[in-house]
Write a structure and sequence with these properties.
There is one protein chain. The protein is α+β, with helices and mostly antiparallel strands. It has one domain: Mth169, Chain: A (2-Layer Sandwich), CATH 3.30.1280. Helices cover 35% and strands 28% of the residues. The chain has two helices and three strands. The protein has a three-stranded antiparallel sheet, with helices on one face. The radius of gyration is 16 Å and the shape is elongated. It starts with a strand and ends with a strand.
């Protein structure tokens, strides 16, 4: 089973990396970009033999304990079997 995990800063948290990217896009001539938010993407391959519920519980724990700083970041994931 494969999972894609996306971690992003909460909307209330300033994103200096996103602002720098937005500025650079403007400098390169890409007009009309109103906002950029940077994030992280993880592709996780999980061993077979677990139920979908077990995999989802494990993914939530991975995100809460390591992949995301839940004080300032949100996470979401999708599963492909």
């Amino acid at each position: 089973m494969h999972a894609t995990v996306i971690v992003e800063l909460k909307s209330s948290v300033l994103d200096p990396q996103g602002k720098a990217i937005q500025h650079s896009l403007s400098t390169l001539g890409f007009e009309g970009v109103e906002d950029v938010r940077a994030g992280k993407l993880f592709r996780v391959t999980l061993a077979p033999g677990q139920s979908r519920e077990q995999v989802e519980a494990q993914l939530r724990q991975m995100c809460e304990r390591l992949l995301a700083n839940t004080v300032i970041e949100t996470f979401s994931y999708t599963l492909d079997e």
